[in-house]
Design brief:
With about 300 residues, this protein is of the alpha+beta class. The chain contains ten helices and seven strands. The chain has a domain of about 100 residues. Helices cover about 55% and strands about 15% of the residues. The strands form three sheets. The protein has a three-stranded antiparallel β-sheet.
């Protein structure tokens, strides 16, 4: 399952399982086709853990151990999914992501039931868990196209995260980014920039200088600058994203290709703006300011 898009994180997930050799042969003979899963699909960001789940089949010659790798674009992906390790029985070491292969309403029912159980049995003092569930509900609403409700739940998630006695800056980075990208879709560009800048500032605090998530944060802020018509800044941020990609990702990685496409788009927008400015100058205008540069 591979989706390509722009201005978003490409998330690589794994699923290890055993299947009959007959089923595996059908998959091998259907390269480029579709796979069918029922209801919920559990995956992990931890490849080694997925390999453990796949196990070995030395004692059963009728079975084959299979490792699925899925590259997910969180914007163009059609199936609601959420990171549930904070509320999973197995804890954060599982790095578990749960997909609902049915409709979004089923996912919302699942998360609201989780929320009700926690409210009933745990009460106060677990803002991190509340934050994760509200974030997941917001994401499902986002995938269903209801950005207004998504924003409500994302903001509630951020409020709970900020109420923690010890701030989890990794989660804060995600919360700021989610809100910023929703606001950008809603064309609330100034507010979007504020949250995306907070996301970038947080990422710079907690991530290595050559981390793929930092590249994504630069790219998201670049998309906001582009939407505001601030093309020079958009190109600057997008170039920083690409510099990180070049250092830590293979050249065929979806994120690298997406960021290249974005940079070319912003450069084209800048060139078109300069052409327009020159046209006005030829007609006698004194000068126009483009970002921090005056074209004369």
């Amino acid at each position: 399952m591979k989706h390509n898009g722009t201005n978003s994180t490409t998330l690589t997930l794994y699923r290890g399982q055993q299947m009959t050799k007959q089923s595996f042969e059908r998959i091998k003979n259907n390269v480029g086709g579709l796979l069918s899963f029922n209801n919920f699909l559990s995956t992990t960001a931890n490849k080694n853990l997925a390999l453990i789940y796949a196990g070995n089949t030395f004692n059963n010659e009728d079975l084959t151990a299979v490792l699925f790798q899925m590259d997910i674009d969180i914007i163009t992906n059609e199936f609601p999914f959420a990171k549930i390790d904070s509320i999973s029985f197995f804890g954060e070491a599982e790095e578990e992501y749960l997909f609902t292969i049915g409709n979004g309403k089923q996912a919302l029912t699942y998360f609201h039931q989780s929320l009700e159980l926690i409210q009933k049995h745990i009460q106060d003092g677990y803002d991190s868990i509340y934050s994760s569930i509200y974030n997941n509900i917001g994401f499902v609403h986002q995938t269903m196209g209801d950005n207004n409700l998504a924003l409500v739940y994302y903001e509630e998630s951020l409020n709970h995260e900020l109420s923690n006695h010890v701030l989890n800056k990794k989660k804060l980075f995600t919360r700021y980014n989610n809100i910023g990208m929703i606001l950008l879709v809603q064309e609330e560009k100034d507010e979007s920039k504020r949250y995306l800048q907070q996301a970038l500032n947080t990422a710079l605090e907690i991530l290595p200088s050559m981390h793929p998530d930092l590249a994504t944060s630069y790219s998201n802020l670049a998309s906001c600058m582009n939407a505001m018509g601030r093309f020079v800044e958009a190109i600057d941020y997008q170039q920083k994203a690409l510099d990180i990609d070049l250092h830590c990702l293979p050249p065929n990685h979806p994120q690298f290709r997406n960021h290249q496409t974005c940079l070319k788009s912003y450069q084209d927008s800048l060139e078109a703006s300069i052409t327009t400015v020159k046209m006005y100058l030829d007609r006698g205008a004194v000068g126009l300011i483009l970002d921090d540069h005056t074209v004369v």
